[in-house]
Amino acid sequence: MKAIETKNLTKKYGTSRGITDLSLSVEAGEFYGFIGPNGAGKSTTIRTLLGYIKASSGTAKILDLDIENDIDKIHEKTGYLPSEITFYKGMKVKDIIKYSASLRNLKDTSEAKRLCDQLSLDTEKKVDELSLGNRKKVGIICAVQHHPDLLILDEPTSGLDPLMQREFFNILKEEHKRGSTIFFSSHILTEVQEHCHMAAFIKDGKILVADEVENLKKTGAKKISVAGSLNTDILKEITHLSTSDDGKTTFLYNGEIKSLLYNLSNQEITDINISEPSLEEIFMHYYDTKGGESDANL
């Protein structure tokens, strides 16, 4: 079964872009990263999938349920953490968590208590008194306490300190082991590289590419670092050229290594290092080479 499946999903805001012909397939049981910079369409996609905004065209299913006709059932089976957390003013943390549980007829409070302890959350405080990070903790507990079949998380680690980020991903790993599908958006590439098996890149409301994280790292591009005097004008097929304070020149190269070495052999270089680029560097490589047009068959 597909946890998420969209076909040509489009959301327009008048003449403004939202998402365009977005086709995405997420298998049940995946730990899936949805990557893109701010404004790429990540939140629009998620809110459309969960029925908070209406699609302009296209279709989508969540856990084999149609987002147009079965949204109440979808909400029963999913947990959602929005990028921006807001709650009813004046309510205590414990009351918000209890209210969230009641919406899903959850009477067992043991999981909520365990999560509060794990995240060091004071449930006696009113939400008005909480920092962004602590409000985010409340949202995490509300999303997770009923052990949903699918967790959809929009920029989930914003506002969390490094220690709480680690605890948060420990919670996600626990849910994943229980059988939950994890789908989270992020602009932090290291999070996706460390935790996800699958990932999709989105830019300007369109999917650029989607694949296993390990396959995404096999673009054919190499990270080249050169020390010495280098004339880059004679080099072709390079992107992300930079020079460090110590004089090293670094770039991504997408051509034949034999040709590169031939061109470098005639220059005054003292050292060269050829390595695999990081996922972040690959992400930017896709942005530059794809130009926003998706050729991925998802």
TrEMBL record:
Listed name of the protein: ABC-2 type transport system ATP-binding protein
Keyword Acetylation applies: no
Family: Belongs to the ABC transporter superfamily.
GO molecular function, one term: ATP binding
PROSITE patterns, alphabetized: ABC_TRANSPORTER_1, ABC_TRANSPORTER_2
Keyword ATP-binding: yes
The entry's keywords: ATP-binding, Nucleotide-binding, Transport
Taxonomic superkingdom: Bacteria
Residue ranges of domain ABC transporter in the record: 4-229
InterPro entries linked to this entry: AAA+_ATPase, ABC_transporter-like_ATP-bd, ABC_transporter-like_CS, ABC_transporter_ATP-binding, P-loop_NTPase
CDD domains: ABC_DR_subfamily_A
Organism name: Eubacterium ruminantium
